[in-house]
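Per reviewer request, we include the raw input and output of the structure prediction for the construct analysed in the revised manuscript.
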Amino acid sequence: MSLAKRIIPCLDVKDGLTVKGTHFVNLRTAGDPVTLAKAYSELGADELVFLDITASHEGRKTFTDLVTRLAREISIPFTVGGGINALDDVERLLLAGADKVSVNSAALKDPTLIDKIASRFGSQVCVCAIDAHEEDGRWECYIHGGRIPAGRELTEWALEVADRGAGEILFTSMNHDGAKEGYANEMLARLSDLLPIPVIASGGAGRKEHFRDVFTEGKADAALAASVFHFGEIGISELKQYLKSCGIAVRL
């Protein structure tokens, strides 16, 4: 029996509101994150991801009070990211109710942060988010919400992340983000074959078939999406029933 594939709505938060863009720009508002999180928890999402998308760029900490409010309203695991630079940040967010933390920019600047989080809190707490853009066959990692190239190649960095003790990788294809034309399945399959830890796919969901393909062709362990859920284009229960009909193991 294979492990159930996870469906994970993502709440990108800016100035206290959920937003969604295309290729990391042209953001539009999608509503109150606490209201959305509660609805997703009740509608059958397996987990949630909450990203304070400008925290690193603006040099500030993730909104702890918002994390506390989220934790009160939902009954599923959730991951928090944005502006996490030190163990104190991790501890603060876990105490506020988060189950896992996602690190991206800070980990690329100081990879030992992954070792420290895994050692102190356990690998299961540490999700390493990787935002990467493909150009001429090379996947370049980016920091600060897709603004600055980090000088690291995707697969090389992903292997290091796993070796340092991260429990999962959340890979977002910047090329596919918001385009609704499907996930980066070829690269996802490469990552899934290469890594000893689960891979969460992000960037490109537009139709139910894209979720089927990311699990079959992309070999992802979980699929993250935002706008198709936020704007009611795909229902989570309906999606899971569809995936089950395709022979994909999901929790109903």
